[in-house]
Specification:
The chain folds into two domains: 71-207 and 270-296, ATPase, nucleotide binding domain (Nucleotidyltransferase, domain 5), CATH 3.30.420; 214-266, no CATH class. The chain has eight helices and nine strands. The protein has helices at 7-44, 124-138, 155-158, 162-177, 193-207, 218-230, 239-255, 277-293; strands spanning 71-80, 85-94, 101-110, 149-153, 188-190, 214-217, 263-266, 269-270, 273-274.
Length: 297
């Protein structure tokens, strides 16, 4: 009996195996790219409102897309400091499937600070309402119901007795609820020092361009801290606070995982926008709205 050769079958198997592997790899890569695009859309789009918000309308409106196809959205952050209350009104644009960019900021401040009304809570509403009117003038009407409105109180309210601070925050919340903007249950709160630092860090990362601003190597903070702290006895004019600040910053950067050779861009303003914590805080808040809503969508 003649033996049938299996060489043809082996050749087919050798070709089919790598071909199947390539097809599987292609499908996997395609899925990853699709998943990333979907995640980016969910992360940066403000077309979803948070649970518990005053308005249930989605942020996408007839004016939500600019003529060039870029999505446009806004955020309002009140900074209730010890010396005054300030409002930051941010306008963002986002090209399709890309990171948003800050395109405009409106800023206005009023004195005294919110804590000055601790014994007359009703009077605090007047200044808040005046700053809300600025936001109404700056933001197109069709965006009002989709624009998050937040107040973060800092040092002034942190120093007040708890009951007085909460009464002030409750009054602000009442004024916010009566406004036409997007107001959540967590729209007013007192920040601690860590929150301010994190929000400022988000701001720096969001705004900094590699081509702009001064630069400093991470290792320079450590060198400066050692020098200032070591020379306190001989050069007391440098002061203990400089020693503590530099030590804190160097340890903070170390804990963030930055290598000593990492170059940081440092500037007070970037594209004429103050690098305060307010931008980072509102951007983080907008992101939190999206994260709360996305699992249910």
């Amino acid at each position: 009996m003649r033996k049938i050769s299996n060489h043809g079958s082996l050749r087919v198997a050798k070709v089919a195996y790598p071909l199947g592997l390539c097809v599987g790899l292609f499908i996997y890569v395609a899925y990853i790219k699709w998943h990333r695009a979907t995640t980016t859309q969910a992360f940066f789009s403000i077309t979803r409102a948070a649970p518990g918000a005053q308005w249930g309308q989605q942020a996408h409106s007839p004016l939500g897309t600019a003529a060039d196809g870029h999505e446009v959205f806004y955020g309002i952050m009140f900074d209730a400091g010890s010396t005054g209350t300030r409002v930051h009104i941010f306008q963002f644009t986002r090209p399709p499937r890309e990171t948003p960019t800050l395109t405009h900021e409106t800023f206005k401040a009023l004195k005294p600070g919110l804590s000055a009304y601790a014994d007359d809570v009703e009077k605090s509403a007047q200044g808040i309402q005046e700053l809300l009117d600025v936001a109404k003038q700056d933001i197109p009407f069709d965006f009002w119901k989709a624009t998050p409105l937040v107040l973060k109180a800092t040092a002034g309210l942190r120093l007040l007795p708890g009951e007085k601070a909460q009464k002030l925050l409750q009054k602000v919340k009442e004024v916010f609820k009566a406004s036409p903007f997007l107001v959540g249950d967590d729209c007013v709160s007192i920040m601690n020092g860590t929150d301010e630092g994190v929000s400022a860090w988000i701001t720096i990362n969001f705004l900094t361009d590699a081509e702009k601003g001064g630069s400093l190597v991470v290792g320079d903070f450590e060198i400066a801290a050692k020098y200032v702290c070591r020379t306190l006895e001989t050069q007391p004019q440098s002061g203990p606070f400089a020693c503590m600040d530099l030590t804190y910053v160097s340890l903070l950067l170390q804990e963030f995982g930055f290598p000593r050779s990492k170059v940081l861009k440092l500037t007070r303003k970037i594209d004429n926008v103050e690098t305060s914590w307010a931008l980072g805080a509102i951007f983080h808040y907008i992101d939190s709205l999206n994260r709360q809503k996305s699992p249910a969508s």
